[in-house]
Amino acid sequence: MTSATLFCFAHRGYQQRASENTLEAIQHALELNAEGIEIDVWNIGGQLLVKHDRRLGRLLAGSELITEVHPEILKERPLPCGNKVPTLRQVLELVGSRAQLNIELKGPDCADLFAEEIRAFTQDTGASCEQYIVSSFDHRQLYRCLQLIPEVRRGVLIVGVPLDLAACSVPLKAYSLHTCVDFVNADLIGDAKMRGLKNYVFTVNDPNDLILLAAQGIDGVFTDEPQIVLDFNARAGLTKTAR
Length: 243
Description:
single chain; about 240 residues; alpha/beta; eight-stranded parallel barrel; globular
């Protein structure tokens, strides 16, 4: 068994305890001592709201695109756990300095608002930008973040194995490459490492995959089941101690 540990991002909080991307789910992940939290944000009427789906219907009543709903109405609709859709600012305040926070820009036109929110929060509270990662499948928005707020690290999200491997990270001056567990590839991992990138994999919920990924030199995972990663790391730590 490998002795390598994996950085644990609780994917959308601890969603086995509360509805994903809610303050309650994030609080449960913090109480579990997850090292990182991952959330998703959309620009809804000029506000950054924490929500994953582009359309209502899975967790919130309705069928509209969320960008068609007024933000104040969206924030009042109850989720299954009884919580409401939070703002990015509310999440920043809850997390504080207790964990790393990966903020994925899901919808269009988020980058400028994101830069404004982070600058305002860090200025108001003295928080450090070093605890944040901004990620997106929309690399144009990551490039905009590089221009607007370069002190926040950038995580490049991809699905698949590009012909040029991790080369897309170069113009973005990225910190990390975020790859899908279904497409983990030794050449991609090696190229990212050669470029000085952290390798993070999503979404990993099987303990057997943790063993495989640690053996391949992955740095961390996004998981819906943070307890399995913490348990894995505890066992790996015992293995190191025994050596």
